[in-house]
Amino acid sequence: MKISSIPALLLLVVSSSYSNDDVFDSKLAWNEMVSTLRSDYAYLDKVEHDFKNLTDLFYVKALATKSPKEFVDVSQSFLRNFQDPHLNISPLDPDDYIVYPTGSDIYAEIKGEEIYIVDVKANSSAYEQGIRSGMIVKSIDGLAFQRTIEAVTGLSADNLSKEQQAYAINIALGGKRYQSRTLTVSTDNEVKTYNLDPSYDRINKFKHGPKVTHREINGIGYIRFNNALGDNDSVTEFRSAIKILEQTKGLIIDLRNTPSGGNTGVAEPILGHFTKTERPYQLYKTQQSGQHYSDASFEKATVFPQAPFIDKPFVVLAGRWTGSMGEGMTIGLDALGAKAILGAPMADLLGGIKQIQLTESNATLSLGFERLYHIDGRFREDFEPTIFIKSADTDEKGGDITLLKALEVLIDN
Fold first, then answer.
1. In the record, which residues are listed under signal peptide (predicted)?
2. 88-142, pLDDT tens digit by residue?
């Protein structure tokens, strides 16, 4: 198998090189994938109690596949049960669900037998059509609760924890890749059906816009990253923004729209504006083949000073669409002296990732091989905002209470 490191979340759509003359052996393909997870996945311990159960449940399904495409489809369902958005297998096709959270614009939680919308991504198709937190989801693309979960995970809800069920629902809310969605909800004793554009359409619409936007609000500088932490223009545009906002008395750094992650080559020069000396901003342990990640030594990821130095109080906004490098920047800014982190728990894209080519199925497995930590030793995925706001993107009226609270924190400083 061939291994290559990759910096960002988005999976490549890889063309299969299989020909009609190739003989596909599903058992060899399954054994290769499972053994790769055992040897290279740094987060296996998070699902270790479920791993044997999941492999047992999917063994027969995987062995029944007749082609690499069928195998990948079954494997995608299998891997979704790990609740790790970084853990994926490709190639992808139009009938696959979105890559979460990049293609997501609605976040929901399960309470009893109901699915409650908790947050809606700002400026998304769902937001613009009037979907709001507090609504109860009745069906997604015509499928009710139980059937939706089975379609995403390949298992009945009875075999899954509430957390696994909720993860499946949130993937389903984003719909199929580049396909329109139908969402039926109840609100104020009224049932409504919404026809939503493909979630990726909105992402692509803004892809060629500014990577960083800024403005001044009541003497406070506001800077928002627009899902481009893998684009070097973000570094340049951030530097321009802080120079323009130089006379403000505080800064709000908004990382709520970074679901696709990015890379350290973009993040570290930005973080460097918040320190006068070389400083660590996160810790990590790298998984080595044949070695449990916990036996690896802590290593420090550091940043170097960048001019101009930001010598004013600042806060950070984060939430359900803060992913991967966005999460790394959030914990890094916390380590570098943020006055507060405001918002909801982040997307929990686990670890630094690499791609491994699976030769038996001609598939590409993306997994976390570096375990990431806050500098205080907490797992990155366990980090919580210091000021919790459940509907961190938009509230039940469509407003941005997180931004309003951030202004209060800085103006009252």
1. 1-19
2. 999 999 889 999 999 999 999 999 889 999 999 999 999 999 999 999 999 999 9
Print the domain residue range for 411: 1-98+200-413
Query: pTM value?
Result: 0.92
Q: Are residues 285 and 341 in the same domain?
A: yes
Closest CA to 187 of 226, 134, 238, 246: 134
User: If you ran DSSP here, which 8-state letter would residue 27 be given?
Assistant: H
Q: Specify which residues 229 forms β-bridges with.
A: 262
CA distances from 46 to 50, 53, 59, 407 (A): 9, 14, 21, 37
Closest CA to 55 of 69, 42, 68, 36: 36
Closest CA to 251 of 206, 210, 309, 211: 309
Helix, strand, coil fractions of the chain, as percent rounded to 5? 30, 25, 40
Are 134 and 89 within one domain?
A: no
**Can you tell me the distance from the alpha carbon of 252 to that of 340, in angstroms, rounded to the nearest whole number?**
10
DSSP at 11: P
Instruction: Check which CATH number belongs to the domain holding 184 and give it.
Output: 2.30.42.10
